[in-house]
Amino acid sequence: MVVKSATKKKLMDLGIAEEFSHKLADDRKWDDVKILTSGQIAQICGIDSGTAQEIYTVMEASAKPSRAATTEKTIVRRRTASRRRKKKTLPMQEYDPEAKMRQILRNLD
Predict the structure, then answer these.
(1) pTM above the 0.85 mark?
(2) pLDDT > 70 fraction of the chain, expressed in percent and rounded
(3) Is 103 a domain residue?
(4) Is residue 90 part of a domain?
(5) What is the DSSP string of 59-81?
(6) Segments forming the whole domain that contains residue 16
(7) With helix as H, strand as E and coil as C, how does 1-57 read?
(8) How many domains, in total, are found in the chain?
(9) What is the pLDDT of residues 70-90, one digit of tens each?
């Protein structure tokens, strides 16, 4: 069995004792620890149900609230479409081959 150090550190950061953090993180990822019930926590750590319930509530409090639990309404506002200016087409210059050749020869000198 390998203790997942990131899971153990997260549990200790929440204020759970190192002994219990070590037992809970034994071969478990954080996602696995989050879904444990207080009864399972008591069984894993070998503690009474009161202490297990305290650990459970600490872990539940740290979890982000789900969107379904929020009572606030989300208001989505649609932005008005921006009006773009019409692109103007510029007339093309007439190509004069003789003038271009004079320009090339002038640049060579």
Answers:
(1) no
(2) 85
(3) no
(4) no
(5) HHHHSPPPGGG--SPP---PPPP
(6) 5-64
(7) CCECHHHHHHHHHCCCCHHHHHHHCECCCHHHHHCCCHHHHHHHHCCCHHHHHHHHH
(8) 1
(9) 556 667 777 777 777 777 888
